[in-house]
Design brief:
Radius of gyration: 19 Å
CATH architecture of the largest domain: Sandwich
Number of domains: 2
Shape: globular
Number of strands: 13
Strand content: 15-25%
Helix content: 25-40%
Strand order of the largest sheet: 1-2-3-10-5-8-11
CATH superfamily of the largest domain: Jelly Rolls
Number of helices: 11
Structural class: alpha+beta
CATH class of the largest domain: Mainly Beta
Length: 301
Amino acid sequence: MASHPIADSIAHSIVDTDQGRWHSAWWVPPRGSPLAGAVELIWHFDGRLAQARERVFPGGTVELILQLEGRYQDVIGERCVATPLSCVTGLHSRAFVVQAPSARLCVLGLRLRPLAAHRVLGHSLHAATDLTLDLDDLLRDAAAALTGRCLAAPDADSRIRLAVDWLVERLQRAAPVDAGLCWMLAQMEARHGGTGIEALREQAGYSRNAMQAAFRRHVGVSPKHYARLLRFRHLLEHLRQPPAAADGIVAGSLAELALAAGYYDQSHMNMEFRAFSGLTPREFLLANHYPGSTSIAEDTA
């Protein structure tokens, strides 16, 4: 397995607030990396959370999660369901809530763009949309090998390096994706979903049925829905830019932000924002955010 000189580009932070105390490490593939364009982020969390429940917003990515200590639960209505120790959270079309254990939690996450996730998993992503699946069921020995190596590794940096090598190897062995589909997604992502899907389809040489089938298998949702997710994500990034204070966002600036993010008007933005998050933009700004994240801490009441 090839080794990659990534140690100098792994970032670290220690958080000690009323939300808990933890150590975070993360790595973003630099330009020229074999994982650039395929992997958005590899992250490592080790610590305790004082506020157990977390609302996670859809970001148009697929996440592979290795729970090395402790175990998250999915909050589904009034129930809490334990997630598999090694799991996949598919592309989500709406916000979802997870609950952390009260004890120490140590987690490694591999955040992949859809086409890379399909190649790594070798399964249709539609089956994972809005779900948490057992990674061992999908990848069997390959998943167990990665988990075992990470459990034996001494620290966060070692685990991130192991994940990088594992992903490079998986992608090198995977079948390539049709160039037309790669081009379509690259165009959509570069323009944050703000481009004509029919025009892209024609340039890529797809029929409507073939395009829908390709997105269903390789992305998990329809082209239109994926475009909406990209636009929502772009809006979240704008809202989290400082100053991220609700009293600093007046009606006029929200209207301007709506147009800048590709919405028809502020009403359209509010409607889409509530559909994906369950909140209005102003409620999102007033929420209790985790440092460096769009996710928010939720009361259990």
